[in-house]
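Hi everyone,

Forwarding the result from last night's run.
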Amino acid sequence: MLDIQTKTFNQLNTTELYDLLQLRSEVFVVEQDCVYLDIDGKDTKALHVLGYKDDKLVAYTRIFKPGDYFKEASIGRVVVKENQRQEGYGYDIMNASIYAIKNYFKTSDIRISAQTYLKRFYNNLGFKEVGEEYLEDGIPHISMIKY
């Protein structure tokens, strides 16, 4: 089981910030071979959901209140360290993020921009596809909503 912490940007210490940016870069830039601007100016508005195993960051998301990113609350930058993906930590970090949205933002309406190959994963969490597939940073995505 992960040790999960939820923090505002200002509550993150420099080590936590470094670790989450490193994990995001490892997966989204290097592993997925995608050159894009990860540090997009939105981290300061987000709540950061950090999942630790043995004091090492292995899973992460950032969440936004309704209106900050989409009309609904949203979850983004969903990431699990490559060598930890068979442990179910994707579900742990997403469930913690869904709970944090209910707890902090008092809503259960959530929109995500999901990489298309992960549709079934998000379906299992109660998200449904809306609209057509689109490319984001050269990777197929689909908009999904959970009510």
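The radius of gyration is 14 Å.

Cheers,
N.
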